[in-house]
């Protein structure tokens, strides 16, 4: 093809944008609506690795479901963020701007959960979610972005 690969044509970007909106709606439901009721007390963790360390080193204290959900769920659910952000926003194709945007978005989600009391502010969630976004970013950088540069 000419200067644009098929991955960056208008129709493909439209499909990716629609998938990203669907992802945002699903995540909004998971994070703020589904099986969530406002709690009475504020819950928060500001100490990095305070909830991750017990999950890693005291695994037998947790059910398999809780362990998988808290560790891998927080990573896997945010992999798409690492693909769609750099795909849709050219300025976020470099690692540091991408990471900054991801951390700001995740911080906003955690603050919203704290204010609405339908979750808890946990710095470890930001850490695990960022790891998930980084995995998606690496996938984007290795698979999708190089195709654009090689087809010019």
UniProtKB/TrEMBL annotation:
Keywords carried by this UniProt record: Membrane, Transmembrane, Transmembrane helix
Residues annotated as domain VanZ-like: 21-142
Domain of life: Bacteria
Transmembrane segments: 12-32, 71-89, 96-115, 127-145
Pfam families: VanZ (PF04892)
The UniProt record lists the keyword Membrane: yes
Keyword Membrane: yes
The name this protein goes by in its record: VanZ like protein
């Amino acid at each position: 093809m000419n200067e644009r690969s098929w991955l960056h044509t208008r129709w493909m970007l439209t499909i990716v944008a629609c998938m990203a909106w669907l992802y945002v709606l699903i995540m909004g439901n998971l994070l703020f609506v589904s099986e969530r009721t406002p709690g009475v007390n504020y819950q928060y963790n500001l100490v990095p690795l305070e909830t991750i360390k017990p999950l890693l080193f005291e695994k037998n204290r947790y059910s398999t479901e809780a362990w998988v959900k808290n560790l891998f769920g927080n990573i896997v659910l945010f992999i798409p963020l690492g693909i769609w952000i750099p795909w849709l926003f050219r300025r976020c194709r470099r690692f540091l701007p991408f990471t900054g945007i991801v951390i700001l978005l995740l911080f906003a989600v955690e603050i919203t959960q704290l204010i609405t009391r339908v979750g808890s502010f946990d710095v470890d969630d930001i850490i695990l979610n960022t790891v998930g976004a980084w995995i998606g970013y690496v996938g984007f950088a290795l698979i999708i972005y190089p195709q654009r540069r090689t087809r010019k």
